[in-house]
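Lab notebook page, bench 4
Experiment: in silico fold of construct C2
Operator: M.H.
Input chain length: 255 residues
Purpose: comparison with the prior construct
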Amino acid sequence: MRLNKFISHNTKYSRREADLLIKEGKVSLNGRVVSELATEVSESEEKVRVNGRKVLLKTEFCAIVYHKPKGELVTKRDDRGRKTIYHSLPSRFRSFNSVGRLDFASEGLLLLTDAPAIAQALEKSDIEREYYVKVKGEVGENVMQAMREGFFASDASRGGHAKSEIKSMEFKPFLDFRVVSASGGYTRLRVVISEGQNRELRRFFGCFELDVVELKRVAFGRMSLDTLGEGKWRYFTRSEYDDLRDFLKKSGVRW
């Protein structure tokens, strides 16, 4: 395992921060200061120290559910000084990693964990994600067919961030969808998808010139918001931890 990954998995530091610590000569391996970023380590045989403190292998992990409100960024730093989820969450969660992101204007369920490998595995998984979406315009049969069958869009920039380098996108068939209501020039839908690409739903509807005006994630697998209030958080329940451990075992994820 790469040294920076080892440090990230077992401490509060991110991989980028671990790289900086290595460059600054603050990391040692078996008593010798490490200078190479590409250094490999054996978890069972070697001793890693950061700032003189031995890095202990984690034997447990922690995960929480957060109800992200609109107007918060899912990032640890923002060069424009905007509010992030870490301004709202208790300081003890400052080193936690989010499972994917919800953009600034979106809201709803967000998972966070202190184990980066788990966050990455969940983000890349095909576990279902459920959303309520409100779009400006009418959702016609062509849009419903695309939801049923999926499609490739050579230009999926509408709905994406202006500075995003992602232009094309492959959209998988939705697992489920239902039109909840249509009135006043707007359509409200409940949709279930199995992936979390960059602004995927905004880009999907943007391909049909439908702008998403409201987007709320209400469930990720068997975990749901239920009565969790906006801006509130909770720890995983025992059954949710059991489900997560089963997922990690089946996926062969080492965290």
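Observations: The mean pLDDT is 92. The helical segments are 3-10, 15-23, 85-88, 116-124, 141-149, 200-206, 238-251.
Next step: discuss at group meeting.
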